[in-house]
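Chapter review: from sequence to fold.
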Amino acid sequence: MISFLGLCIQNLIQTIKYIFGGNVKRDSVFARAAMISYDSLPIALSIVFIAAVVIALQVSKQFLMTGAESYVGGFLAIALIRELAPGFAALAINARAGTAVCAEIANMKVTSQVDALKTLKVDPVGYYFAPRIIAGAITIPMVVVLAELFGILGGMIVSYFAIGLHPNRYMSSVWLWLNTRDIYISIFKGFLFGIVIPLVCATQGYETQGGAKGVGISTTQAAIKATVFLLLTDLIVTFIFYVIN
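The token string follows.
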């Protein structure tokens, strides 16, 4: 994992140089954005919505027993925006699009398309990585914001039908507990996740060897490694913004 992290950092530096060289095509970025975030939007929103509904079902009656039912919305909003929505959305996108990125690049590697680019004096790392990383960094924060809205809406619906909590009281507690700083941090998490997912998966795909069997192995490893790095990134960001500060 340490050596793989070094490869990821090297590829990221090389990609940044490629981006600032002005070689990235806008159409390629749009196509990757659609593949990474738009196509993953239904599953990401569904997972966060269901998670919010489950949490609301778990805590609403407990809050009602203690007379604190008015705080269900605030509690759920904090849990969603600080952790659940960015994390679950990123994991869903990784499972849906990250593995696809790895398989695509791995297939290009084993079919010698990477070597063909080198003969044309085109940097394959920049050519393959840059559009995907730009697309992920721009669009995944948007998915995170939508997931937060869907999660809060799901909690409001469940709280109304489970304990009869009026939507006005629910939203009042959301605005009372919610801090714009939490929203900014969740968007920043989405931005970092948008870099980590394509970077890790593309790096794993770029290191593929061994034909079709190697593509399958790399795809599995990409899903695992990207999940680990996503959780580590989440831990570091949370520690910096909520423990140190």
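Two observations follow directly from the output. The mean pLDDT is 87. The chain has one domain: 25-239.
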